[in-house]
Design a protein that fits this description.
The chain is built from 17 helices and 14 strands. Helix content is 57%, strand content 14%. The chain folds into 4 domains: 144 residues, Beta-Lactamase; 114 residues, Beta-Lactamase; 121 residues, Alpha-Beta Plaits; 87 residues, Arc Repressor Mutant, subunit A (Orthogonal Bundle), CATH 1.10.10. With 567 residues, the protein is α+β, with helices and mostly antiparallel strands.
Length: 567
């Protein structure tokens, strides 16, 4: 009879141990910390006569929790647990006669506390179960923490691997992009350094992008084309639309799209020197093509600015040379400077002074003369702007000079769309030191032309005849005395009477004594002309019918007209 309870107790202990073993396996099978604590608190009631009061996990900032996981506000109990400092020990304030805090420990690790309570101290076998349960719970918590950290570490590694793979992909893409940009830079730089000019830049851009390329001047004229299907004729936008397009392109730091083309401007400062365009009707161009276009525009800007600088420098040097030639310089320096500019001054030259009364602009007249000289004489022009007109130092055409200079007059007239121009041609000079004399002769020939009845056309100094004497200048006292001798009475009469007898006489003699032509030139009636001629005879005392008298009067009126500036 005495062995019955003992066997029963042993069986109960064995059952409890089996339950603890099963619980340990269950706790260790990937459970989380909250689930482990829930199983531990449930097992307290199942395996013993005690009840779970609270749990505490190390590192939980919320503190004590009830068995259902809610926050438990028992500061006195929390202070007792802190005092125990990781050891088992009795605690009060549990609401029961007996309370015990079991440390949840594993090897070298304190995971927290499991607080249990009962109406009285449990029997030894239950205390043993509680101790084992606390140890199993601590071991499971430690294992759960390790598993959680392992999962977190694995997740971090996966994130790092994905980030590394993304970085590697970006790096590879960056390397490819940099390589393509390097190729663009090297290709276009090599073309610019080779001196291939705008055509070379367009060809290189076509090879880099596979798209057709057009290089235009600021006005929309085609300067270079690369690729198939070159349009002929080349289309040009209306002026207003092109101005708006250029304004948009100048404001944008990147190329812009204009219908089926991508546009970039060559603009060193505020002036557009040219336009570089990719023809892309299908919209295939990407970042690489845009970069190549933008870099090509930079190369085109450098090329056009260089050409502009060379042109301006050459123009300035040419003007300086012409100015020195006209005012006088030595042969040696003039020949060497002209040779550097590609002009041979060792051949005979002539100076021409060109004046156009209704040319659109002075620059327009200069361009027209330059183009005419290149077309007719197959040489560059040595030009200068002077108050008396555009001065040209040109190779002498030889015996054919009169026809050639007349052709120059017609060619310039077509360019400026006007025939109201006069050209004075000086004598031939064989050395640079003779240019000032030829210049003075050209000025005198121009004055004669402007003072004649036909103030448009060409006058060669060698054809002036007696007018060479009459065009020596206002300082020629003999000429002035001659004019006074023959026209003095008429000049005085005009001055006091405010009449135009001298002008009438000049036109009458210029028109060869023709009444109708003279009346038309003076815009007066024939009867008025007859009256004035009678007054001229009366005032001057000269007989206009005498041959010698008419000759002297004609020379005197022409000299008077020239001396007063041909007005």
């Amino acid at each position: 009879m005495k062995q019955g309870p003992t066997i029963h107790a042993l069986r109960q202990q064995l059952s409890n141990l089996c339950s603890l073993f099963t619980l340990s396996l269950k706790m260790s099978n990937g459970c989380g910390e909250e689930e482990i604590l829930e199983q531990a608190t449930t097992s307290v009631c199942t395996l013993t006569s005690c009840g779970a009061v609270a749990t505490l996990l190390t590192g939980d900032d919320e503190g004590l929790r009830s068995p259902d996981g809610t926050i438990l506000a028992r500061p006195a109990l929390a202070e007792q647990l802190a005092y125990l400092n990781g050891a088992d020990g009795p605690v009060g304030g549990t609401g029961s006669a007996w309370g015990m805090a079991y440390a949840l420990e594993s090897i070298g690790h304190h995971a927290g506390y499991l607080v249990v309570a009962a109406d009285g101290e449990p029997p030894p076998d239950e205390l043993l179960v509680l101790q084992i349960l606390a140890q199993q719970t601590g071991l499971a918590l430690t294992t759960a923490v390790l598993h959680r950290r392992e999962r977190e570490t694995a997740g971090q590694l996966r994130t790092l691997n994905a980030t590394l793979a993304e970085v590697n992909n970006r790096l590879a893409a960056t390397v490819v992009d940099l390589e393509r940009r390097r190729k663009v830079h090297e290709t276009l730089t090599a073309v610019a350094a080779s001196g291939a000019g705008e055509a070379g830049i367009a060809d290189a851009l076509h090879r880099l992008t596979g798209l057709r390329v057009a290089a235009e001047d600021p006005f929309g004229n085609l300067r270079a084309w690369a690729g198939p299907s070159r349009p002929d004729p080349y289309p040009r936008l209306p002026a207003r639309r092109r101005e708006a397009m250029l304004a948009d392109a100048r404001r944008s730091p990147h190329p812009i799209r204009d219908r089926d083309r991508l546009i970039a401007v060559a603009q060193p400062r505020d002036e557009v020197l040219g336009v570089l365009a990719l023809v892309d009707p299908a919209g295939l161009a990407g970042e690489h093509e845009l970069f190549a276009l933008q870099h090509g525009a930079v190369m085109l800007t450098m090329e056009l600015a260089h050409l502009r600088g060379l042109a301006e420098t050459e123009l300035r040097l040419r003007r300086d040379l012409v100015d020195d030639l006209l005012t006088g310089t030595d042969d040696v320096s003039a020949l060497s400077r002209a040779e550097a500019l590609g002009h041979d001054l060792r051949t005979p030259h002539q100076v021409l002074v060109i004046r156009w009364s209704d040319a659109p602009t002075e620059n327009g007249l200069v361009r027209a003369v330059e183009q005419a000289v290149v077309r007719l004489l197959n040489t560059n022009a040595l030009l200068a702007r002077r108050p008396d007109g555009v001065v040209l130092v040109a190779p002498s055409p030889g015996p054919d000079e009169r026809r050639r200079w007349s052709e120059l007059h017609r060619t310039v007239g077509r360019s400026v769309r006007s025939t109201a121009g006069a050209i004075g041609v000086g004598g031939v000079c064989s050395t640079p030191t003779g240019v000032p004399k030829s210049y003075a002769e050209a000025q005198r020939a121009l004055r004669v032309r402007l003072g004649s009845a036909s103030p448009t056309g060409v006058t060669v100094y060698e054809d002036l005849g007696i007018y060479r004497v009459l065009t020596l200048g206002e300082d020629n006292r003999e000429v002035q005395q001659f004019v006074r001798e023959w026209l003095g009475a008429l000049l005085d009469y005009d001055s006091t009477s405010r009449s135009d007898l001298v002008t009438t006489l000049w036109q009458y003699l210029e028109q060869g004594g023709n009444y109708d032509a003279t009346a038309r030139a003076l815009l007066i009636h024939r009867s008025t002309l007859r009256y004035r001629l009678r007054r001229i005879k009366e005032v001057s005392g000269h007989d206009l019918g005498a041959v010698d008298t008419r000759l002297n009067l004609h020379v005197a009126t022409r000299a008077w007209h020239i001396l007063r500036g041909g007005s």
